[in-house]
Protein: Formate hydrogenlyase subunit 3/multisubunit Na+/H+ antiporter, MnhD subunit
Amino acid sequence: MIGVLPLPAAPQLLFPFSLQLPQGMAFSMMLTFIAVGCAGMASLWVSGKRGALLPAALQLGGAVAALAARDLVSLLIAWELLTVSGFALIRYQTSSYRLHAALRYFVIHIAAAMLLMIAMIIQARVQGSLAIAMLVPAAQPFAAAAVCIKTGVVPFHAWLVKTYPEVDPDVTPVLAAFTTKVAIISGMRLLQLPAAGIAVLAIVGLISILVAGVAAVRQNNLRRMFCWGLSSQLGYLLLLAAIMQPRHYQLLYGIIIAHTLYQTGMFITLAGISKRYGHEDLRRMLYEARVSWFTVGLMVVFILSMIGFPYTMGFIGKELTKLFPLSRPLMLVVEVGYTLHLLAALKAAAVLFRNGPLSSSRVYLQRPLHHSMVAAGLPAMLTIVFGLLPQLLPGFQLDPEISLPGLVPFMLRIITAAGLWVLLRRQIIHQVAVDLRRDAWFAASPLQAALTKSLLPLRYAARVVHSIGPQRQVLLLLVSVMALHLLLVTLGGAG
Structure:
């Protein structure tokens, strides 16, 4: 009798390079990326920025590849494609100032990729596979740090709020459309943190909501104000990703879709406003003619979505934070952040939607509406349709367990923000923007002076690290991360 020996099962490929068409809400997210990518590239085309079309297309390709990736190597390659194409976009129309911004962007995102690579190595060593799944506990801190860096939340916000306002205005919509959203979605796919890790991510999100919200209100540069607002909004997304259960992720996808649409359309509109005025200084705009009604309509759509107008996806995103267990002080931070968003919106509206005070120095603009702003029509239309009717999104279904409050809380916030605006309107519009390098700002009180003195060693260390250049910074970061990894392995073995 001849026995039949069973063949051993083929081991799972360590580097499968597997891509698969996304399903459900991930498919809707992919369609959203394609829509905003086409809108951004259309704006570049009609503005005559043809040289930026290739890196913009690579940005779109990297975002779609990140959604379709089924293994960590493919995800890492998608991240790097976003980094390299982002570097090329920032370097578009070469200047030494933009070279510095591009190097800053490149170094920080390479650091995030190195953290993800360390998580990938740990996952492969423990599981023997690189298929995308919830990471093993030892790998999750590195992946969480990488997600926070690429998301651009406080305290990892410097690359976002310093890079986006410095690049060409027509480049900002494409640059801001993909990277941060891909980071949030990657975190949803890879992370399942313990209670302590969830608390850390939630606190990081809350800090970003508050700090970036305050900074947004204090800005007098239009694009910089909305960049700080973007960092604050990303704090909301990180907070929701931390506290929501995986069964609610389809709702979080809907919120990210709404955020992507209005944020891309907003930056396209801001690029048109910048061309019309020839600058982005809100204080100068007070004494210049009002923007066109088409621009006003676009800004109304995007601002209402940003502040969470009732029963839109933005409203759902703001109110979801109340449906999960947060302590009263943390909920107070969320409410304060919401009010700060409203104040920033009122500041932009006061400057752009109405003429400034009568003055002989008012300048009447001769520049017509720039035709590149027509590209903002697609995000505006999709913002209205999917904001009011999210069930039209493929795969979207509102969880029956979730019930949202009515209009009363929203109206109370509107009244609070309006009251603060009436009291602080002059200070909010005419104040000097935040500049932490000014010693006079720190010397305003004994507490601030003491804080400045305590931070001097940290500021000196930051200057030293800055002076060694981006290449040595990457090397220093790599050595630090590897040392941290060895320390964790040693402590884990000792335990």
